[in-house]
Amino acid sequence: MSQLSLFVKSGFVKAPLANGIGRYVPQCQRMTLKFCLGWGNSRGVRDFIQHDLIEFVKQNPGTVMYLKPRRHRSPVLVAEYLNGGREWFSLNDMTREEVYKWVDLYRTKAGYPDMHFKNYQHSDIPSIQGYWTPFTNKPADRNMLEFPQNSLNTPLNLKPSTSEIISKLYGEPQEQRSSR
């Protein structure tokens, strides 16, 4: 058992019922930016509000954005979700770009607390073979080819057919034999 699992709850994946069937419903209902108008640790939040907030709100009409100026307090982002979840995050001494990334991250979350997800399946002896991909058993020399290649339309390990072997033995071209 890892040290992290002692403090993080575990559970199964919970998804909003049929979200995405018909139309997608963003789970973030509203976000509140609390910041100070004068302190320096709110500078990134004020720059985000001045330069990026209008464009962000136009791109995300399903999420309501509230601004709450407070005197002599650290900047905070509060996100409220449709499932009743509420998350609080400090934006203290962050740049404008970092604030934008955190606001975008909390906009895309579902509002469930961070947890270690359980699987419905369990194996005492997990596979050691690794993952299979369509490129697993392909020859490595194909990495250096320039495409399009006509020779790739046929399998590389193809043995000559019986009719090709006979035509080579008797010296008769294959086109003449097929016209008979």
UniProtKB/TrEMBL annotation:
Q: Where are the transmembrane segments?
A: none
State the source organism's domain of life. Eukaryota
Annotated compartments: Mitochondrion
* Keyword set, alphabetical order: Mitochondrion, Ribonucleoprotein, Ribosomal protein
**Record flagged with keyword Mitochondrion:** yes
Keyword Mitochondrion among record annotations: yes
SUPFAM superfamilies in UniProt: Thioredoxin-like (SSF52833)
Residue ranges constituting the Ribosomal protein/NADH dehydrogenase domain according to the UniProt record: 38-110
Principal subcellular localisation of the protein? mitochondrion
Q: Which family does it belong to?
A: Belongs to the mitochondrion-specific ribosomal protein mL43 family.
PANTHER family, A to Z? 39S RIBOSOMAL PROTEIN L43 (PTHR21396), LARGE RIBOSOMAL SUBUNIT PROTEIN ML43 (PTHR21396:SF2)
Q: What is this protein called?
A: Large ribosomal subunit protein mL43
Q: Which organism is it from?
A: Orchesella dallaii
